[in-house]
Design goal:
Chain lengths: 154, 272
């Protein structure tokens, strides 16, 4: 089966039952995709599949066939990432950093759907991404800042 | 190594389903929690025939592989189902999980299935030999036991387009997002010219199967609000007897009192 991974078409010949999380980390060495709970609870393994935020631990490879997948490694090269990166840094929204790849991709999905999100919409958008350090407020602020600073990008 | 299959069309999926011992895989959000290498999946999540949402004079028709996000975003879906779907998991889970999978998993905690019970929805089950349409309440046979035959797939959910507008829905979980229901309740009531023309209730996460007792709800149908108030105690007593909760991490006593509180609140909100 084939799928598009961070802009490049790849052919995968391994087991269709393997989780996308394991394949991204072990086979493609994309270790920005974090393995937290492996049961869809924490969002650390979030990637964007066909323009939607998904938990890569919840996806068997058979379901990823013909999909377009973006991990933090691919997203990092975008202008939108640069805006989010600055916004997160400006308010200290990243502490230990483990949740941040997922948080950044969740932030992207919030802004792609709602370029000027309310606080409630931001909280809803990151509600599947757990952070054990920040208490979320700094992350919510960072997304608001990114929405302003990145005016026109989303 | 076992074979898993990616089906491109419903026909191809049904051919494989008839021939092989496979587990239908819609969105995977239940299956992947206990991810196994030694089972054969039939991937049906991208089959176009299972992704449609449409309506006709009688029904809203939802393809079994529609995700909760697609359900929330569709203008055809009634608010009561959107209310339940939007409280499932978090955004990333709703982007994957399908309504067909929620049904097939067989859990009484399935948040979307509660709505299918309260709306008396029907399921279209298809196989390579034909199809049958089953009321959702007849699909559930017991704890994790469903009527789905080994060669069948759920293809479509049919929700009757009547009495859907005045709804009540509450999910009681331990947290706001990513919560598994401790108790969920849905109610529908149609009051026309001061008279109750429709009343339906359903209780999820309480028993092995979602509780829907239409013969008790029928006690209120045809009555004025004043008449309904007069028989409210009798109605509540009937449900108090009918609801026999299971005990797990949540006690049966807690489940029972939450059910009765929500039922009482549903009546109060409708002036009863």
């Amino acid at each position: 089966m084939k799928f598009i991974l961070n802009g490049t078409e790849v052919t995968y010949t391994g087991a269709l039952n393997a989780s996308l999380l394991d394949v991204l980390r072990d086979e493609y060495r994309l270790t920005g995709v974090k393995c937290g709970c492996k049961e869809g609870e924490c969002g650390a393994c979030s990637v964007i599949m066909d323009d939607r935020l998904v938990n890569s631990c919840m996806i068997a490879m058979g379901q990823a066939a013909d999909s377009t997948i973006i991990s933090i490694e691919g997203y990092r090269d975008t202008d939108r990432y640069a805006v989010l990166d600055r916004a997160y840094a400006s308010v200290g929204a990243a502490q230990c950093g483990f949740c941040i790849p997922g948080m950044i991709l969740a932030s992207e999905c919030i802004l792609a759907k709602t370029p000027h999100p309310s606080e409630e919409q931001i909280r809803e958008g990151i509600s599947g991404n757990l952070c054990r350090c920040t208490g979320y407020n700094a992350i919510v602020t960072a997304v608001s800042i990114a929405a302003k600073e990145g005016e026109g990008l989303w | 190594m076992v074979n898993s299959y990616i089906a491109a069309s419903l026909k191809e999926a049904l051919d494989i389903r008839a021939r092989e011992d496979v587990i239908p895989y819609g969105g995977g959000t239940d299956l992947m929690i206990k991810a196994a290498d030694d089972v054969s999946y039939l991937f049906i999540g991208k089959i176009p025939e299972l992704k449609q949402i449409s309506e006709d004079n009688e029904y809203i028709r939802i393809g079994a592989a529609c995700t909760f996000t697609e359900i929330i975003e569709s203008p055809l879906i009634p608010p009561v189902l959107k209310a339940a779907a939007s409280q499932i998991g978090g955004p990333a889970i709703r982007n994957l999980g399908t309504i067909g999978g929620n049904i097939a998993n067989g859990s009484p905690k399935a948040d979307s299935v509660l709505i299918l019970f309260v709306t008396d929805a029907m399921l279209r089950l298809v196989s390579d030999k034909g199809e049958r349409i089953l009321p959702v309440k007849d699909y559930y046979l017991g704890k994790k036991k469903t009527a789905l035959a080994g060669d069948e797939l759920i293809s479509e959910i049919l929700i009757p387009r009547v009495d859907l507008s005045n709804y009540y829905y509450k999910k009681v979980g331990a947290r706001k997002a990513q919560a598994i229901s401790r108790v969920a309740f849905a109610g529908l009531m149609n009051i026309t010219n001061g008279r109750i023309t429709h009343c339906a209730t359903a209780f999820g996460s309480v028993s092995d199967v979602i509780i829907r007792r239409d013969y008790i709800d029928a006690m209120l149908i045809g009555r004025t609000i004043e008449e309904a108030k007069a028989c409210k105690a009798e109605y509540l007593a009937a449900f108090d007897e009918a609801i026999v909760p299971i005990s797990g991490r949540i006690s049966a006593e807690y489940r029972k009192s939450v059910c009765m509180n929500l039922l009482g609140d549903f009546l109060s909100e409708n002036g009863i």
